[in-house]
């Protein structure tokens, strides 16, 4: 194959926010989002098999009454977000840098203990309180979302 001999448009897209077709589900703004084996966006949950973490939902979209692919969801793929610490996980500053696993679409824990599927969603970069007043951690998702 020959090298370029003229300008080539690569259709750059920064990739920080992407749209994904949804499964027949409701996904809330701020949720950890994965894609299932069929390629549709679903809420992250350790009990659901074959998920790949894709990022954080930018909006609430309800496709629970529709067919898979009927609606799309805007997902942020980079940055840091405050998620709820799962019951039994009491994060401290000694946990900074640890990897986190999704328990539900908004709860995380540092250990894979008790999880059916251990989906890694990021690293702890801070200990903070969630917007609902619960104990939480600031999670950096860079390099964890596909």
How is the topology of this model organized?
Elements lengths: L16 E5 L4 E2 L4 E4 L5 E3 L8 E6 L3 E2 L9 E5 L3 E6 L13 E4 L4 E3 L10 E10 L5 E6 L6
Parallel strand pairs: 8-10
Antiparallel strand pairs: 1-7, 2-6, 3-4, 3-5, 5-7, 8-12, 9-10, 9-11, 11-12
Question: What does it look like?
Answer:
There is one protein chain. The protein has 146 residues and is mainly beta. It folds into two domains: 17-76, no CATH class; 80-140, no CATH class. The protein is built from no helices and twelve strands. It has strands at 17-21, 26-27, 32-35, 41-43, 52-57, 61-62, 72-76, 80-85, 99-102, 107-109, 120-129, 135-140. Strands 1-7-5-3-4 form a five-stranded antiparallel sheet, with no helix packed on it.
Structure summarized in a few sentences:
With about 150 residues, the chain is mainly β. It has 2 domains: about 15-75, no CATH class; about 80-140, no CATH class.
């Amino acid at each position: 194959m020959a090298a370029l001999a003229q300008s080539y448009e690569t259709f750059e897209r920064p990739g920080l926010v992407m749209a994904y077709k949804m499964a027949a589900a409701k996904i809330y703004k701020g949720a950890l989002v994965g894609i299932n084996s069929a390629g549709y966006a679903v809420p992250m949950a350790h009990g659901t098999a074959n998920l790949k973490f894709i990022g954080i939902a930018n909006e609430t979209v309800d496709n629970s009454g529709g067919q898979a692919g009927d609606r799309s969801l805007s997902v942020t793929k980079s940055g840091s977000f405050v998620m709820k610490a799962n019951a039994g996980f009491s994060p401290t500053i000694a946990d900074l840098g640890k990897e986190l696993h999704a328990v539900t679409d908004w709860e995380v824990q540092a250990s894979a203990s008790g999880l059916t599927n251990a989906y890694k969603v990021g690293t702890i970069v801070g200990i903070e309180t969630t917007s609902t007043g619960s104990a939480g951690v600031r999670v950096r998702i860079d390099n964890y979302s596909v």
